[in-house]
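Attaching the record inline, Q. Sequence:
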Amino acid sequence: MRLFYWIEALIKCVGFFFISCNMKSFPQYTFFRSKYGEELLIDVVELKDIKKYLFDIQVHSLTYYDITFITEGSGFFHIDDRKYEICPGDIIFSVPGEVRCWDIYSIQNGYALIFEEEFLLSFFKDPAFIRRLSYFRPEAERKMTLAGKARTEILPLLGTIRQEIEIYQPQHEHILRAVLYEVLMRIDRAYKQYGPPLPLHAEKAFSRHMNRFASLLDKEWSSHRDVAYYADKLCLTTGYLNEIVNQVYGVSAKKYIRQRVMQEAKKLLKYTSLPIVEISERLNFNTDSYFIRYFREYEGVTPLKYRNQKE
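Structure, as predicted:
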């Protein structure tokens, strides 16, 4: 009963919906589309309204994009296997599926700008737009400090979004899209000027084929790991797909696929107490011994040793 009331309160307060929770795993949240009556896929919520519902279960993932602005307090913020020390003025970025955990005791307040990708794509018709943003790229650091002119330009726009949501009518969607677009682009400019440097290969053009490959891999990595499968789906040769991936990420398509699988494996090892055999099954390995060999070849240690050496 306690869990039911916790979920109900969370839904009413912060605008995302609890999908599932396994006591050995972590919960995932999807966007609460009808929070304001009509479907609306953007929101700005205060951290103080979120964190009081996270004391029991702090580790979680989202099915939508999140940009968190810290205004009060200092502490840590985990995104997947990366840990960031944060303080007022910092921004944390997360993409759908990444595992998050933050210091709800020390971080006092801030704002989370949350939105679904389709909110933008239904108008801009550019499937690569979000993937091209510097801070949402897979290899990018998920933290930057917002200061000076960028801070005075961007933070008021969050207030504009909140005001527009308070008086929201379906015909106001375009205003919200325009303001969201401005926020994303201004942050991208600040990230490139003042944020952590991107790897050299990330500065290269994010090709149309690479975007399609990355999108397809996000959907099918657990069931398909052969380069030939993705090349066929994209109507490319395996050689050309390898060339594209290597140009952007500096690795072969096979290694890029393996990195995606390992990313999921490390999440489950770090943030859950699931036994190795169950993790192997979730990741669609034929046997747990094959999963152990696969993991050790990439990471240099067994899955169990990796789990034990993490915080």
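The CA atoms of residues 212 and 234 lie 8 Å apart. The chain has a mean pLDDT of 84.

More tomorrow.
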